[in-house]
Amino acid sequence: MGELVEIIAKALVDNPDEVEVNEVEGTQSVIIELKVAQEDMGKIIGKQGRIAKAIRTVVKAAAIKENKRVVVEIIQ
């Protein structure tokens, strides 16, 4: 699922080389930390958080197949 977030993020930003994805796995859940360049934060979050919400929705749909709970965090 980290790969999925990375592919989506790299397609959206101007600096795809600065996209970093870190997965922290627990027993029931997975936390995916997405880090992008400061100037690309607006492109990842989108107006009123629409793009961030869409990314989270797609990842949650992929996580259902693995019976895991996924949290996508966008960090600076």
UniProtKB/TrEMBL annotation:
CDD domains: KH-II_YlqC-like. It holds the Pfam family KH_KhpA-B. It is found in: Cytoplasm. InterPro entries: KH_dom-like_a/b, KH_sf_prok-type, KhpA. Its main location: cytoplasm. A probable RNA chaperone. Forms a complex with KhpB which binds to cellular RNA and controls its expression. Plays a role in peptidoglycan (PG) homeostasis and cell length regulation. PANTHER family: RNA-BINDING PROTEIN KHPA, UPF0109 PROTEIN SCO5592. Belongs to the KhpA RNA-binding protein family. This is RNA-binding protein KhpA. It comes from Anaerosalibacter massiliensis. The gene is khpA.
